[in-house]
């Protein structure tokens, strides 16, 4: 399985499986001199972790991250940063019944047919567990962006099933298990999720995100468009099925006279472009939205087949997220941070003269 890395000047590589001994990542190209501690990374990890509320999987991982290289006396050295987390609460026996069957809608099917082997325990490499490392690396990128460029990145739940949520009060997003600032809708969300969990079904979600303070001029004009690389990063998150930048699919029905962001007195009057024109940032907030599908590990029986092509009925037991989109909020922020930081480093590499001052 190749291609476990992304980024050009800031290169992130992850490894590990959901029920393996350890998961980890290497971040290469991170600049020297930034203070960072495992405790700071853990703050972000706790936001993403399972078992934080009854609305997510009840697997209880400590996510006790170890910084094993690239940090000396509390500061990044400029050398590869390696992070490790031990898996301590895997219950592989939950998966013995589906070791030779394919859950409809799950990576089980495509992994088996591609590789002829699959680590079925907890979804193996296809598990959302892998995103732990993205959030760990994202914690460093978010800090670097804020300290060096004043960039702030925030994501929030904007829809779950048919329940639409406003952005609401951004300061409240981290105060509830749904990552919503539309706190008046919390009772409705709780009731909906409780009913869903009892029914054994799952549901999709939409996450909106914005990065404020992104410098003008990031992104390359053709294959390295910032929006293209953000879309790739978002589509690489488990269960993502769609990405919109700025007005996204609403652009289809907008007239040009509406969609264009007019400039008056040096100020944009709207932001349908999502802060990116022709792949290059305008200095406006970078905005995007990601669609997450309903998860496929369901207690409701589904028709499928086994690895011998025989028809079977699948029921998934164990601990699963009824809506993995909820926990995707910090993952979207992390991926956005990693892409934007990579582009700032690339921008410097391309636009500075290289002369020593
Ligand atoms: C997952 C199933 C659960 C989740 C896991 C993703 O794992 P298990 O079956 O081992 O209890 O808890 O997510 C994480 C552990 C995590 O850290 O995100 C799945 O079906 O993808």
Overview features:
alpha+beta, 5-stranded antiparallel sheet, 7 helices, 357 residues, Chorismate synthase, AroC fold, binds ligand EPS
Task: Give a structural overview.
The structure is a single chain. Helix 5 (226-235) packs antiparallel against helix 7. The protein has a single domain (5-351), classed as 4-Layer Sandwich (Chorismate synthase, AroC fold). The model has no long low-confidence stretch (mean pLDDT 96). It starts with a strand and ends in a 6-residue tail after the last helix. Strand 14 (276-277) and strand 15 form a beta hairpin. Helix content is 27%, strand content 21%. The strands form six sheets. Strands 1-2-3-7-4 form a five-stranded antiparallel beta sheet, covered by helices on one side. A five-stranded antiparallel beta sheet has the order 9-8-10-16-11. Strands 5-6 form a two-stranded antiparallel sheet. It has helices at residues 38-48, 107-115, 131-149, 186-199, 226-235, 256-259, 324-351; strands at residues 5-6, 11-15, 22-28, 66-69, 71-72, 75-76, 81-86, 152-160, 163-164, 205-212, 240-245, 263-264, 267-268, 276-277, 280-281, 286-292, 302-305, 311-314. With 357 residues, the protein is an alpha+beta fold. It binds ligand EPS. Ligand EPS binds at residues 18, 50, 57, 59, 61, 90-91, 94, 122-123, 127-129, 132, 297, 318-320.
What is the gist of this entry?
The chain is of the alpha+beta class and 357 residues long. Helices cover 27% and strands 21% of the residues.
